[in-house]
Write a structure and sequence with these properties.
Blueprint: H1 3-16, H2 23-49, H3 54-86, H4 100-124, H5 131-151, H6 157-162, H7 164-188, H8 192-198, H9 205-216, H10 218-242, H11 247-254, H12 263-270, H13 274-298
Helix pairs in contact: 1-5, 1-13, 2-4, 2-5, 2-9, 2-10, 3-7, 3-10, 3-11, 7-8, 7-11, 7-13, 8-13, 9-10, 9-13, 10-11, 11-13, 12-13
Length: 299
């Protein structure tokens, strides 16, 4: 049962065991990781183009996305404000420009990658039998590089354990997302393990879409991608509005992206006190995304 999980998970573990001390090497790895994500998402679009009854499948993708997004986000937002009430964080507002447009463009670029692959697959009429195998090979390399990135993110086990608020926020996201995933699976008449896997993306839309798409096909991969992408887009809009009053909620809803993509917004709008909490919670969730998704998909 776990052989497939171990095969996919092994490159991540190997990558995590490799320390990198040269900044130029890390920069190269980050660049290649971003490029591979674009390639795999383009291949996902090609896979969608090869499906029968494409319009029906797209309608299914949108329906499933709305159900999972509403349930998971709603569940998160029921609990996170309670953490703000019990464990408030002092915030400070720095009058700096939030690079909202640049961040939005990064998300749009990934959407274009999927859409571009879909259009090419529909228009070109090429043989698409090679797409799945190519995606799996690139995925293994991508997981290896992601493992290296996580190892060299600057977080130590001691720093994570000592930051209790960051750990608490991460546990709150996990504890509220997984039951929502089960409820979504029940509503949509899906296997429960698929609902749990869908709830384990925590905002990392590229990796969640790739992993789930590799195991369950392009339809469910598209659902995972859009579900987590919506989370990030809402987070980018929500953080500046609520972080002064509900900092834990803002950091928590950002999910795995709190340690990287949405961190500049958190720091600019909430102040430096929010940064360690965001990094710790984001790191824990980022580390658990591939672990939980691969585990649930292996059941």
């Amino acid at each position: 049962m776990f052989s497939g999980m171990l095969f996919i998970f092994l490159p991540l573990v190997i990558g995590y065991l490799i320390p990198v001390h040269r900044a130029s090497v890390l920069t190269f790895i980050n660049t290649q990781t971003s490029r591979m994500v674009l390639v795999i998402l383009t291949l996902m679009g090609l896979s969608l183009a090869g499906l029968d009854n494409l319009s029906q499948n797209l309608n299914q993708i949108l329906t499933y996305t709305v159900v999972f997004f509403v349930l998971i986000s709603g569940s998160n937002m029921l609990v996170l404000p309670l953490i703000d009430r019990l464990f408030p964080i002092p915030t400070e507002h720095e009058h700096q420009r939030v690079p909202f447009r640049e961040m939005m463009m990064e998300s749009v670029k990934l959407i274009f990658a999927v859409a571009g692959g879909l259009i090419v697959g529909l228009v070109a009429g090429i043989d698409l039998s090679w797409v799945d195998q190519a995606s799996e090979i690139i995925l293994l390399i991508l997981l290896f590089l992601i493992g290296i990135q996580l190892r060299n993110s600057g977080m130590t086990l001691k720093q994570i354990i000592l930051n209790k608020k960051g750990v608490l926020i991460a546990l709150a996201i996990i504890g509220t997302s997984l039951p929502a995933g089960l409820l979504g699976a029940w509503i949509l008449d899906l296997p429960l393990n698929q609902g749990l896997a869908m709830a384990s993306g925590f905002g990392w839309y590229s990796l969640a879409g790739i992993l789930i798409g590799d195991h369950l096909g392009p339809v469910m991969g598209g659902v995972a991608f859009l579900n987590e992408l919506l989370r990030e887009l809402v987070a980018l809009t929500l953080i500046p509005l609520i972080i002064q009053r509900y900092p834990n909620t803002a950091v928590g809803y950002a999910g795995a992206t709190a340690m990287d993509f949405t961190l500049p917004v958190i720091q600019t709008c909430g102040g430096i006190r929010c940064v360690p909490i965001a990094i710790v919670s984001g790191f824990i969730l980022s580390l658990l995304v591939p672990v939980l998704i691969l585990f649930f998909l292996s059941l």
